[in-house]
Specification:
This protein is α/β, with parallel strands linked by helices. Helices cover about 35% and strands about 20% of the residues. The chain has helices at about 5-10, 15-35, 40-45, 45-60, 80-85, 100-110, 140-150; strands at about 70, 90-95, 115-120, 135, 165-170, 185, 200-205. A seven-stranded mixed β-sheet has the order 3-2-1-4-5-7-6, with helices on one face. The longest helix has 20 residues, at about 15-35. It starts with a helix and ends in a 6-residue tail after the last strand. The relative contact order is 0.14. The mean pLDDT is about 95.
């Protein structure tokens, strides 16, 4: 599978964005031989299982210029790196507690020449900044994740949709989300036709605030 699948689903990319998406395969294959951040099986399916999967968030939410997004437990840079290519005027912070993964993220970001990403080797609990949205790919059950990111979301929304969490997850989420009445779940099969997306979802949890 090549980068052309990205171009099919996102036809309005600039020539620079197309080049950056094309470069992802070389950069990840090269770095994956040195530091394994993507499974051997998945590296050949990079554009569907990682890049397109990450971009599912963009089918649901477009990030405005000047807005800020935190990617928690980014691993090798997903969903943050593909989203940063797609939204070059949005600022992204990608964090992971495993140093070698953040090293790969930094090398990929440098290799792409993108300037709207900060990669940090840290735990999310140690970050003091606040963001418009927090994104992630199934790094923990939702109650755990909500606890981790408490206080990290800005109260004032610049988008029509309220600030909150955008979470890529698969399978049956009934039990995990039963305490979150405001959650909205969207099937990725509504956006993509590939078999990989059959059980995949994007979960949106708007953050509620007491007081004002």
């Amino acid at each position: 599978m090549t980068a052309s699948i990205i171009f099919d689903y996102f036809p309005d990319l600039s020539s620079e964005q197309k080049e950056q998406f094309k470069k992802l395969e070389f950069l990840y294959k090269d770095w994956n031989q040195k530091i394994n951040v993507v499974s051997r099986k998945d590296i050949d399916e990079l554009y569907v299982r990682h890049v397109l999967h990450s971009l599912a968030i963009a089918k649901f939410q477009q990030f405005k210029p000047g807005s800020t997004v935190l990617d928690v437990g980014t691993g090798g840079g997903f969903p943050g790196v593909p989203l940063a290519i797609l939204f070059p005027e949005t600022q992204f912070m990608l964090v992971d507690a495993i140093g070698k993964k953040i090293k790969v993220v930094q090398e990929v970001v440098d290799g792409l020449g993108i300037t709207n990403v900060v990669a940090k080797h840290t735990r999310v609990e140690e970050i003091s900044e606040q963001f418009d949205f927090i994104v992630s790919r199934a790094v923990a059950a939702m109650p755990t994740f909500v606890h981790w990111v408490k206080g990290r979301i800005k109260k004032e929304s610049v988008h029509e949709r309220k600030n909150g969490i955008l979470y890529l997850k698969g399978g049956d989420l009934t039990e995990e989300l039963k305490d979150y009445k405001t959650t909205q779940i969207y099937d990725l099969t509504d956006y993509f036709k590939e078999d990989f997306f059959e059980t995949k979802k994007v979960v949106y949890l708007p953050m509620k605030y007491k007081g004002k």
